[in-house]
Amino acid sequence: MNNTQKIPFQVSLGATAKSGAESAISLLSRSLPASVVKVMNSRVVVKFEVLSDYNLPEIEVPVVGSEYVRIPIQKGDKGILIPCDTSVSEISGEADGAPSLDSPPNLSALMFLPLGNKKWKAVNERELTLTGLDDVLLRDDVHQLKIEDQFASWNLLVTRLNTLLVTIGAGLTTPTVLTPLDAVELNPVKDRE
């Protein structure tokens, strides 16, 4: 007679239930910290920022956010991976159809959410702060405004007006000269850390 036949049925049943529950829990996704390795429009490749005995691969996941407000995520940005109870492939445009209620494999239903950092520069908490690394673009379906482009356009207009004022200035009793805007003097922004 082997040992399995000597263990009381209640003890064996409890151990089996515990083993089954632990196995099911290990298949579930977990929220884990990650950093961006590569940016691809509304998706990113991330690496897990955890110490682990397991070999966690870099994975491609959608970014949490709206089509109407895009944040300039960069390589190295940190955040968390948030799991969903079903596949997000259909909603994020990777697959067609609708997700089923079946539990997805544990790394396939994750989404990246950027996370605030204590090292960020302080801003006015009562203002909406938009920061683009190259420019800030505001647009609708018909119009768009790029801050840097508009600034350059304004200064070009001032230069042309000054040229005209020099031409007609001799006939004016008080000649006028307009001064181009200087971004540094207008609204100085400190360098990013």
Could you walk me through the main structural features you see in this protein, from its secondary elements to its overall organization?
The protein is α+β, with helices and mostly antiparallel strands. Among the domains are: 89 residues, OB fold (Dihydrolipoamide Acetyltransferase, E2P) (Beta Barrel), CATH 2.40.50.140; 43 residues, no CATH class. Helix content is 25%, strand content 19%. The chain contains 4 helices and 7 strands; from the N terminus they run H-H-E-E-E-E-E-E-E-H-H. Strands 3-2-1-4-5 form a 5-stranded antiparallel sheet, with no helix packed on it. Strands 6-7 form a two-stranded antiparallel ribbon. The longest helix is centred in the last third of the chain and has 23 residues. The protein is elongated and about 115 Å long. The mean pLDDT is 77.
Summarize the topology.
Blueprint: H1 3-6, H2 9-26, E1 32-40, E2 43-48, E3 59-62, E4 78-83, E5 110-114, E6 137-139, E7 144-146, H3 147-169, H4 183-186
Antiparallel strand pairs: 1-2, 1-4, 2-3, 4-5, 6-7
Task: Please outline what is shown here.
This protein is α+β, with helices and mostly antiparallel strands and 193 residues long.
The strand count comes to: 7
The whole-number mean of residue pLDDT values reads 77
* CATH architectural label of the domain at 29-117: Beta Barrel
Quick one: biggest sheet? 5 strands, antiparallel
Strand order, sheet with most strands: 3-2-1-4-5
Kindly report how far apart the N and C termini lie. 71 Å
